[in-house]
Structure formats: C-alpha cells, structure tokens
Amino acid sequence: PHAARRAVTSQWCGSPDTNGAYSYLRPGGTPEHRDVLAGPILPGLWLAGEATSRAYPATMHGAWFSGERAAEAVLADARPGDTCIVIGAG
Asked: Helices H, strands E: what count in the chain?
C-alpha cells in the first residue's frame, strides 16, 4: 500500500569532494550519538546511512541496514498523504 514516489541519488563514491568518505565519532563521541541520529529528527524526517548505525558504523552494511530501519520507521509512523523524507539510506 505504501511506495516511494521519488528517489534522489548522488554519486558520492565518485565525487572528488567526498571520494567515498565515511563517518567517524569525534573525540568524546559515543555510540549513543549514532542512536540520536537514527531516531526521528522531525515529524516525517529520518536520517539513514552508516553514520546512524551503532552495530556497523562506517561500513556498507551499516548504510544498508540503516536504510531498512528508516524505511520500516516510515511505514510504521506515516499515514497516507504524509510527506516523508529519508536522507541517507546507503
């Protein structure tokens, strides 16, 4: 019953500005900071990507699984007609 109407992608892996960059915790950062990023930011806005993964940070698996997590959150929380945005998602 729910389907994405549009997807926008980038070519970050081939970009000279990012060159396939990945996340890291700054000094003093904790896995709980990743959990905050993984939660709902605002109504209808979720972040995904390896930076939000506590179990697999800075990996392709973290990006993939975080996309699945965000999609499940959208499906669980959104109502028909809502506008939802997921940023990241591997």
From this structure: 2, 2
